[in-house]
Amino acid sequence: MAILRITVGLPGSGKTTIARAMDGFGLVSPDEVCKELLGGYYYIHKSLTNPVWQTVIRRVVAGLAAGRNMIVDLGHRTTELRRPWVQLVEMGIADRIEAIVCDVPPEECMKRMRKRGRASAAELAGLEHRKGEMELPTKEEGFAYIFYVKENI
Questions:
Q1: DSSP readout, the chain?
Q2: How many domains does the chain contain in total?
Q3: pTM of the model
Q4: pLDDT per residue over 32-74, tens digit each?
Q5: What's the CATH number where 105 sits?
């Protein structure tokens, strides 16, 4: 069976950079699926009935079923957002789940967002909100390993 990894962190913390660097892992990015299906990046409610999420889940499950290690590139800031992925292990679709936590201070995330041109007032306000809801993953949630990556990504 295959390994499922998810990224955890604020926007601008390096999640995508890390996910793209994972040799031996198929990458599924809800942002990229959103661009593919809708022609751009939009806030997508993380509902299992949403077509973007259905596509993301379908691609991850297909990769795991084919024996490929997979990584999902998203903030996964809360236990609730991580739960559907943990359930794939409980259902026997993945061998184990691992989290990569990009532990970068919000001030650095804001600098990075400004540098890449994604620093509108709404984006920065969203970063403040997301910082407040951050729940770090735990082994009790079902993670086999939790890796922490510090600021210099």
A1: --EEEEEE--TTSSHHHHHHT-TTEEEE-HHHHHHHHHSS-------TTSHHHHHHHHHHHHHHHTT-EEEE-S---SHHHHHHHHHHHHTTSSSEEEEEEE---HHHHHHHHHHTT---HHHHHHHHHHHHH-----GGGT-SEEEEE-S--
A2: 1
A3: 0.87
A4: 888 888 776 655 555 555 788 889 999 999 999 999 999 999 9
A5: 3.40.50.300
